[in-house]
Amino acid sequence: MGPLDKLYAKVQASRGGDPTQSYTAKLFERGRPKIAQKLGEEAVEAVIELMRGDKQALVGESADLLYHLMVCWAEAGITPDEVWAELARREGVSGLAEKASRPPS
Ligand SMILES: N=c1c2ncn([C@@H]3O[C@H](COP(=O)(O)OP(=O)(O)OP(=O)(O)O)[C@@H](O)[C@H]3O)c2ncn1[C@@H]1O[C@H](COP(=O)(O)O)[C@@H](O)[C@H]1O
Questions:
Q1: What is 32-72 written as a DSSP string?
Q2: Which one of 35, 46, 61, 102 is least enclosed by Cβ atoms within 10 Å?
Q3: Are 79 and 73 in contact (CB under 8 A)?
Q4: Which residue range(s) make up the domain with 79?
Q5: Is the distance from the beta carbon of residue 84 to the nearest atom of ligand 1 less than 6 Å?
Q6: For residue 50, what is the domain's CATH number?
Q7: CA-CA distances (angstroms) from residue 61 to 4, 6, 29, 43, 66?
Q8: Residue 51 reports pLDDT greater than 80
Q9: Is the complex ipTM higher than 0.90?
């Protein structure tokens, strides 16, 4: 299991928990508009750190962004495996395009 699969499993485990104890449970309780807002905010914060050139701050904002993306997937009923499958499909498609552009040997 990769780090994002692990984080997703923790997010799912916290869902429905006590909102006074768990930020994740609180986020789900506040609902889809709040989850969408947080994902957008974290993306913008990552963009700001990229433009500022602060690598360490970008690492932190990237972790926040990935966490909120896992919450977004859970809210939408998407599993990480569905996204990994889409990435693998694209890799296959671009691999085929690369082969097609090579001269015949
Ligand atoms: N990876 C994270 C994680 N990354 C960021 N955050 C929270 O995301 C929030 C982002 O900070 P902000 O200042 O933008 O948000 P805020 O002001 O607290 O919240 P709002 O008022 O904007 O809603 C902080 O409260 C962070 O604690 C996270 N909260 C939880 N996790 C993981 O989620 C799992 C479940 O944890 P619980 O949420 O404690 O159940 C655990 O594995 C945690 O490590």
A1: HHHHHHHHHHHHHHHHHHHHHT-HHHHHHHHHHHHHHHHHH
A2: 102
A3: yes
A4: 3-101
A5: no
A6: 1.10.287.1080
A7: 15, 19, 23, 8, 9
A8: yes
A9: yes
